[in-house]
Amino acid sequence: MNKIILKLYVTGKTLRTQKAIANLEAICKNELGMEYELTVVDVLERPQLAENEKILATPTLIRELPPPVRRIIGDLSDKEKVLIGLDLQKLTCEE
To answer: For position 95, what pLDDT does the model report?
Structure first.
């Protein structure tokens, strides 16, 4: 079984940030049938991490594992777009 590694880059503790986190947590809880690890990175607190990942807009979600790396930008409110954008729809069906 593969583990899904997700990193969500946000800016501060804004309403948009809170919405993106809540949307992602709901998707992970309800849609991912496998083990996952989610890390939230505030680019105001950890600017070097954002620079290393070349984050140009927030919120940005990166699926680091399984390869290949996938990225999606936005508040993550459209579950289908998130699953398709991160190429997770087929992973959720493999269980």
So the answer is: 43
Range of the domain at 55: 4-93
Task: Give the pLDDT confidence of 5-17 residue by residue, as tens digits.
Answer: 999 999 999 999 9
List the one residue out of 47, 36, 38, 91 whose CA is nearest residue 68: 91
How many angstroms separate the CA atoms of 88 and 15, rounded? Answer: 26
Domain CATH code at residue 55: 3.40.30.10
Half-sphere exposure in the Cβ direction for 74 (13 Å, CA):
9
Q: Are 10 and 21 in contact (CB under 8 A)?
A: yes
Name the domain count of the chain: 1
Q: Could you report the per-residue pLDDT of 41-69, keeping only the tens digit for each?
A: 999 999 999 999 999 999 999 999 989 99
